[in-house]
Design goal:
single chain; 435 residues; D-Maltodextrin-Binding Protein, domain 2; 2 domains; five-stranded mixed β-sheet
Length: 435
């Protein structure tokens, strides 16, 4: 139990004592007193607010499927599906911060595994540890050890992961590629050749959206240029930011920006993915929630759309995980625990992930429920080099992430590679990872 809970518990005890004092003293009866056998735990009821940013095609349906599993098991709970639109949680996270600061947490909220939770609400003492639930539910045996490490700090586990997403995926319109006689590019050099052909044919080579999707693209260019070890080292201080290798990655990013739609700043991630469906654009680099979006638009993997690792990143899996936590003073704690049990369950994860476009966080997911793309993601996850996503909360603290978001935003305006590299180097220093 978190220290923060103690005053609440003390208050409850006092309230219970007061209530007991007001009750009439029970009249003893002649009937023999039968010692009650262990009372069954009352099924939770009341309201449960589940807070997330899953509003787009695929992600909204995935959440609905998991909530359906919950409702079937806990019919007396009234679920409030509280969503704040905005991919990657850019808006939801701000709303959540205000609520947490104001002592008005939702019952449970979506949060990326890793720095996004540990460096914020965990260090502030605003979460309840969940190690006990892992022990009770046997999750320590069915969740990957490395994932548990990411979810842990100070010897406790702080949230329940529902999935693993891959960030470094290139999605493409198969009929556009076929018509142009193209193969998905495996390297950035191949990408530029393919992009020239597409541009010549009047097709937008790569669709792009609002600010966070630019950062998402940027991290895949870093990964695809530097390789997994050097990319991962960027976030630990082992890879310096002021080297010629990083300059090369920044130059690649600069070149990629010559092949995107002009209205990128005005598009959400799913609108950018939609350009590929429309055939206006040929490719999109996005996490595999785009797979959920394609399927929600009734596109079939391997038929209308194809996929490949983002250029240069074959053999690497840029990973992130969505999870749910228990705020220290969550309303209706029993219902939240019930929700978290569903989040960590095989049934919950196998209902959610095939629709969401992610693979289960559990290692015992029912493979046959997952389509061709997701099965390939399962295989890649088991053999690739796993690296953490920056834009999706795994690689760095939110303050460092914000510095990178700002640097990318400035760069897109001025296209000054040297200034960009300086800003990124300074960001690493102020995060305390670089000297
Ligand atoms: C990511 C999140 C995914 C998906 C995506 C777009 O940050 O992990 O589950 O929702 O944003 O909204």
């Amino acid at each position: 139990m978190s220290r923060k809970l103690y005053p609440v518990v003390a208050l409850l005890i006092v309230a219970a004592m007061l209530l007991a004092a007001c009750k009439p003293t029970p009249v003893p009866t002649e009937a023999p007193v039968v010692a009650p056998t262990q009372a069954p735990a009352a099924a939770p009821g009341g309201d449960l607010e589940v807070f997330s940013w899953w509003t787009a095609g695929g992600e909204a349906e995935g959440l609905a499927a998991m909530l359906k599993v919950f409702q079937a098991q806990y019919p007396d709970v009234n679920v409030i599906n509280a969503t704040v639109a905005g991919g990657a949680g850019v808006d939801a996270r701000a709303v959540l911060a205000t609520r947490m600061q104001g002592g008005d947490p939702p019952g449970s909220f979506q949060v990326h595994a890793g720095h996004e939770l540990i460096d914020t609400y965990v260090v502030a003492g605003q979460m309840e540890p969940l190690t006990f639930l892992y022990e009770e539910e046997g999750w320590l045996d069915v969740m990957p050890e490395d994932l548990i490490k990411i979810l842990s700090s100070e010897g406790e586990i702080w949230s329940v992961p529902v999935n693993i997403h891959r960030a470094n995926v290139l999605w493409y319109n198969k009929s556009v590629f076929e018509a142009q006689g193209l193969e998905p590019p495996a390297t950035w050099e191949e990408f530029f050749t393919v992009a020239e052909t597409l541009k010549g044919a009047g097709i937008i080579p790569l669709s792009l959206g609002e600010a966070w999707t630019e950062v998402h693209l940027f991290e895949t260019v870093l990964l695809g240029t530097l390789g997994p070890e050097a990319y991962a080292g960027l976030w630990t201080g082992e890879t310096a930011w002021n080297t010629p290798e990083v300059t090369k990655a920044l130059n690649n990013f600069d070149r990629v920006l010559d092949y995107v739609n002009e209205d990128y700043a005005a598009l959400s991630w799913d609108q950018a993915t939609q350009l590929v469906i429309d055939g206006t654009a040929a490719m999109n680099i996005m996490g595999d929630w785009a797979e959920g979006y394609f399927k929600a638009q009734e596109w079939t993997p391997g038929v209308e759309f194809g996929w490949a690792p983002a250029p240069g990143s074959g053999g690497s899996f840029d990973a992130l995980s969505d999870s749910f936590g228990l705020p220290a003073n969550a309303p209706n704690r029993d219902a939240v625990i019930a929700w978290l049990k569903v989040c960590g369950s095989k049934e919950g994860q196998d209902a959610f992930n095939p629709i969401k476009g992610s693979i289960p966080a559990r290692t015992d997911g029912e493979r046959s429920l997952y389509d061709e793309y997701l099965q390939s993601a399962m295989d890649d996850f088991s053999r690739d080099a796993i690296v953490p996503s920056l834009m999706h909360g795994a690689a760095a603290a939110p303050s460092w992430q914000q510095d990178v978001i700002d640097a990318v935003g400035l760069f897109i305006g001025n296209r000054d590679v040297a200034a960009f590299q300086e800003a990124l180097t300074a960001a690493c220093t102020s995060a305390g990872a670089c000297q």
